[in-house]
Structure formats: C-alpha cells, structure tokens
Write a structure and sequence with these properties.
This protein is an alpha+beta fold and 156 residues long. The chain is built from two helices and seven strands; from the N terminus they run ββββαβββα. It has helices at residues 61-73, 137-154; strands at 16-27, 31-39, 48-49, 52-54, 83-88, 99-108, 119-126. It starts with 15 loop residues before the first strand and ends with a helix. The mean pLDDT is 90.
Length: 156
Amino acid sequence: MGATKGTYTYKYPRPSVTTDCVIFANDPQEGLSVLLVQRGGDPFKGYWALPGGFLDMEETAEEGALRELREETGFGVEIDLLEQLGCFSDVDRDPRGRTISIAFYALVQKGTVTAGDDAAAARWFPIDGIPPLAFDHAKILQAALKRLGEKIQSTK
C-alpha cells in the first residue's frame, strides 16, 4: 500500500520553495518604480518586501509567482512575460527555516494595487526611494535591476 496523497516521508530533510516577483514600471514623468508589499505578519512584520510566497504542490514556479502577485497586490495588469531571474538559496535567507526562492521579474504598465492575503499594504516605490527590505529582497532587487539594465542595453 502506498502513502496517502499529501503525506510524505523522506530520509533527508527538504527545503521549502518560494517565489518572489520584482515588478518594475517605467513612467516617463516618474521614472522607474518597483511594486512592494508591506508584510502583515512575522517574520519581518511591517517591513516592505517583494510580492511572493510559498509554492503550492500542484503549481509551477511561474504559476505560483503569478498567484502570489495577484493575491498580495490585486495587480490586474496582464503580464505578458514574467522572466525567471534566478534562484536565491542563501542558507539563512529566511528565519522560519531552509527556504529557496525562485525569483522572477517583469517590466509592466503601472497599475492600481490593493493589499490582499497576508500583505498589510501594497504600493509602487521609486527606485531611488526604496525602504529597507525583508529577507534578502534587496539582493534580489539589485540582481533584477542589473538584468533589466542589461536587457535595455541589448535592445539599443
């Protein structure tokens, strides 16, 4: 007899997997901004963070990233291309335990956002006015800015 669906037994410990979204918008008058959520719970309650969260067992990383983005921000603008930025796996990146994040980024039209799910607030921040970020999200944001800059340079 096999294991019951949803129950797992492994010889080795397993890390949790999360997704994080770096969503940029470029406005000719306001410049480049990024979408952030204020955490409503611990850890880092009250800190600003990239929209994201734990991956469900039945979804791909991209599906999880889009789900979390919609749940936490109500972001309604269609994202044509959510590009994978990379994997962030520093051992101590999340105080709740071993967590690996697959980060994505996109450049979109700025839209209205509303906090939802476990986010206390959601808003656009100008790149030159980013508050202190939770987890390793400053590192993820810097990697996304670098990638976006490279992409813009390659299209010139």
